[in-house]
Amino acid sequence: MTAPAAAVSLRQLLADRADARDWAGVEALSGVEILGPVPSAVGPAWRHALASLGYRITDVSELKNSTCGFAQRNGRPYFFKYVRAGAAIAELAGYLEFGAAGNRVPALLSLLRTDAGTVMVYEYLPSMGLGRGTLFDLLCRAERAGTLVPEREVEPLLDRIRANCARRTVCSESPIDAFFARRVTERLVPWYFERHRPWLDQRVVVNSVPQPVAMRDAMEGTAAFFRDLGARECMLSQGDFSETNVGRGAVFVDLSNAGHNDVRGELATAFWSLFLGGGYLFPKYHPAAYRWREAPYADAAPLCAARPDPRTATLHIDFAHRLSPARADLLSRLLEVFHDAFGPQLLGRELAPYLVMRAVGVLDLDTLEPADRAACTALVLRFWNERDDLGNVLRTLVDHGRTR
Ligand SMILES: Nc1ncnc2c1ncn2[C@@H]1O[C@H](COP(=O)(O)OP(=O)(O)OP(=O)(O)O)[C@@H](O)[C@H]1O
Ligand SMILES: [Mg+2]
């Protein structure tokens, strides 16, 4: 099914009304209650806004982009999230578009505007909260037991993704561009190019194979690719696939980038998260985001050693990451869903810049331990240097898990 892009998106309409401070208009368009600021008091604005409406806060987590937590009112539990005003409108738009297409999302009950940001009040989902039913929790438990994630959890999730793949359209921009094209100037330039990291130009040998290009070439090639993207195939998606944003019963949260999204961006995000980021790098370097989750699987680190040879100015990397069977199974089936929906060309060379951007644009490689940076380096160079055979590269990486 190919649908023409709507002339003016709901996202744009909501943003326009919010810019005009037409809150009644936002409420009428969305059906979600919008409440104005209450007179300020001492302490954080979000705490005061919730308290003034009778919410009792029971737990709080300070994250990079939000403060979120749980609250009770009249004996009922709620989830709240305090974000910048613009981010709340983006999430409202994602919530409406994604939920209207039959995807399970928690009910968004109200937006409480404050002078500094907006509190979003959601229905509390036990599986996403303290019930430990996010995909991260399910994977950790399966990994520890050496089993697969139960079929009753995997198939409904893949079914939803399959259905969303069928909601496709061609667009020249998508919410998920925030994680790709926009990160060239927001991250690649300030993190790497402007800082002249010496390892950018280092020659690299991975598992005894000299790499034809260095990290700088892969990153500059990636930056050039995103400079002029144009119209692309897009599909309906949650827009930030990670193990903590989906859960039991194929429920999705964190919808600020939900909508019609660049298919390659979607696939690269899911691949990187399930392959290395979500099970290992993100819990290790952003532990605060995991405070309500199972303990990360202890054996998730890639087997990676790096040895600089100053004589030849070469970095020798030995890399042998093996996925757990649970991750390998889920990832190979996810690749199959995308392959069936979009054909083998989706795994072609144009996917490489997206994979590189996930590997270098989420965490600053310079802040990682040397072995972790070496693992990312080995993968980036593999994605880039073998981009004419990327389908094979990804399947080989995933298939290692089956024999662990
Ligand atoms: N409706 C809900 N009920 C219970 N818990 C929830 C709900 N929505 C989200 N959560 C929990 O809160 C966490 C953070 O929520 P969310 O991902 O929306 O915030 P965020 O600021 O975008 O976080 P991050 O940037 O780390 O992804 C989720 O990973 C999930 O564990
Ligand atoms: Mg999240």
Question: What does this protein structure show overall?
Answer:
This protein is of the alpha+beta class. The protein folds into 2 domains: 10-123, Phosphorylase Kinase, domain 1; 135-403, Aminoglycoside 3'-phosphotransferase, Chain: A, domain 2, CATH 3.90.1200. Helix content is 42%, strand content 18%. It is built from 13 helices and 15 strands. It has helices spanning 10-19, 23-30, 45-52, 85-100, 135-145, 151-165, 181-193, 215-227, 263-285, 325-342, 352-361, 370-385, 390-399; strands at residues 33-35, 56-62, 67-73, 76-83, 108-113, 118-123, 168-171, 203-206, 209-210, 232-237, 246-247, 251-252, 259-262, 304-309, 314-319. The strands form 4 sheets. A 6-stranded mixed beta sheet has the order 1-5-6-4-3-2. A hairpin with a 4-residue loop joins strand 5 (108-113) and strand 6. Helix 6 (151-165) packs parallel to helix 10 (325-342) and helix 11 (352-361) runs antiparallel to helix 12. The two termini are 39 Å apart. Residues 1-5 have low confidence and may be disordered.
